[in-house]
Amino acid sequence: MTRDSQYSWPRFFMELADKLLAFKEDRQALIATLQHVYAELGMDLPTLDSGGIPTDIDPFTVYGLFNRGLTDNKRRVVALGIGGALGVQAPLHDDFVGVPVLLNINATFYDQVRRDDGDIERLWDLFAVALAYADQSTEQTEAVFRHAYDAVLQQRHASWNVTMGLFWIRPYAYVNLSSRDRWFLALPDRMPSSVRSVLASIKKVPGSAEYLRIRDSILSVLKSGTYKYASFPELSAYAWRVSEQVNREKKDSDKEKEEVTQEAALGDADVETVRYWLYAPGRGACMWDEFYSRGIMGLAWGEIGDLTAYAHKEDLKAQMLQTYPENGTQKNDIHALWQFANEMKPGDVVFVKKGRSEILGRGIVAGDYVYDPEGGHYPNCREVRWTSAGNWPIDERLAMKTLTEITDYPELLSRIETFFEDSDDDVESEEPLVIFPEYSAGQFLNEVYMSEERYDVIVGLLKTKKNIILQGAPGVGKTYAAKRLAYSMMGVKDVSRVKLVQFHQSYSYEDFIEGYRPSGAGFELVKGAFYSFCKKAADDEENDYFFIIDEINRGNLSKIFGELFMLIESDKRGPKNKLQLLYSRELFSVPANVHIIGMMNTADRSLAMLDYALRRRFAFVELCPAFDSDGFRDYCSGLDNPRFEALVREVESLNREIAEDESLGEGFCIGHSYFCNMKPETCTDASLASIVDYELIPMLKEYWFDEPGKVREWSDRLRRSLR
């Protein structure tokens, strides 16, 4: 296969370079042509200048118009549009594999804001001499090339992207040394050790002499036929495939770890919700104007490199302490960098702040984290679609940190959002629609070890009674089942329609419904969790809402519910049944689409039983250990671990003993959830012994505190089952 027949893009790219050369002395004609092309395509010309329409342009940036973060189809459409307007005859298919791309946030070869006189002219000079040197290599053309190359490297915005641009215009003559290809070339078995050692020692863009030596040494290796790639385009394509595979494996591994942790709790690991952030663009917001014009947000600390290189937060911490030892513990900075790279996501909302009492703008995150070596003091970047800019003083002491998540601070969030309610921009309509994953009754039955008949009974009770309490011994999966029950009835994991609170001895009516709280002006009336949730449900009466109360019997229920005792009854719901609230004197009702799921641990002897006034308003559902369920038995079979099965059998025997004990009973049996969420590789002797020694035996000591002999007997039996 010839080099021209394997890929279509090199011929197209090279012919385009020849056509562009004619515009070296007539760039206004080139700009006009580009404007016409984009108008014909029905697309907006990307921002290439801080003033809007560019006043000048270089040829490498023209390539960047279709070698950036676009789909392959759109890249082809733009490239063919430009090529067609310039008279390019070579075909171009969707075979961009290995063609390096610029970051959308940095898609020009000159600094859009602080461009110096002569920057674009020097880029044209390099372009012209690079073509001449590639087509006819002589001492003279090499000398001119080296001079032009080194001159461009002195410019503010020039870095590894220069080697990328050279590769675009003559892909068989120049090697691309952007981060992906450097990483690949440094891998074992990808290049001889002599080449790898040179690449590993490079910390910044090489000058012309070193670049040409690297190029020639790699080209010599490619021509030897030792490797699967025999040209620079083939090398770049291979590097792309390998890196994509590595990235997929890492992403899958990270996602699996996250899901194991989160799914064991509330089952929301696969639900993407909008998060809200406060962000300071440099000291005193000094970078705000530039970041706003470029459509980005950035963080400093560039000396520690690409943040995705740190698999764990502790790794990032160690590097920060080593790199900036004079800055102390740097707890906030480390947390900000970790969240910026790993937790922030497209669709999140960012509020820009200056100091601790002023809001400057609002935007929606539009891109993933990228490390831009050419980004100067702020190489850690994300694209942001800024929707508002201005100055809004806020009567609140904002956090001093560079990046702060405020999703869980609804009062602060509400105050900030009011600044943008009357904005000319239709911000609300621009916010991404959150698509929640579907969740069926079948999925519930697969995850919660319960029979279909039992599930149908619980759903029926919740629909008719409106309020249920899931009660049972520790470890039967009350919390695990509660949210999943709500999701299964909704048919979707819509977290916006589910609210979880936990009662405790200090929880009050003021927390639950409304109450006065201290403020700067004295006291203000603040609405509680249940009041706010009911108002939200009332505005969406066609959908079901679920209010989940953990440890419902830990609170003083008469004080918490107050006058709402009557309103939560199924036949007292809706606007026709209103009562006046204690503080605001507002007439309030509980919507018919609000369902309450309480959870109660029957083995906690420190808690009093619920009073009868509340009991008659709830249906009580007993959740029992599910060791004998089909689902749990399938789970055991999948682990294929004899010691695990022996321990489970012993726990079943223990539960029979507990159930027959007059001082305990079935409400004290040990639940199955102590043994869930294991995999064959994690179900080890050590993990099982840990469950026995640190979870089960301490519970037995509490159950039989006055019968130490029985505790010793069962402790020995549980431990022996693992031998």
Automatic annotation (TrEMBL):
<dbReference type="GO" id="GO:0005524">
    <property type="term" value="F:ATP binding"/>
</dbReference>
<keyword id="KW-0378">Hydrolase</keyword>
<protein>
    <submittedName>
        <fullName>5-methylcytosine-specific restriction enzyme B</fullName>
        <ecNumber>3.1.21.-</ecNumber>
    </submittedName>
</protein>
<dbReference type="GO" id="GO:0016887">
    <property type="term" value="F:ATP hydrolysis activity"/>
</dbReference>
<dbReference type="InterPro" id="IPR003593">
    <property type="entry name" value="AAA+_ATPase"/>
</dbReference>
<dbReference type="InterPro" id="IPR011704">
    <property type="entry name" value="ATPase_dyneun-rel_AAA"/>
</dbReference>
<dbReference type="Pfam" id="PF07728">
    <property type="entry name" value="AAA_5"/>
</dbReference>
<dbReference type="InterPro" id="IPR052934">
    <property type="entry name" value="Methyl-DNA_Rec/Restrict_Enz"/>
</dbReference>
<dbReference type="InterPro" id="IPR027417">
    <property type="entry name" value="P-loop_NTPase"/>
</dbReference>
<feature type="domain" description="AAA+ ATPase">
    <location>
        <begin position="464"/>
        <end position="625"/>
    </location>
</feature>
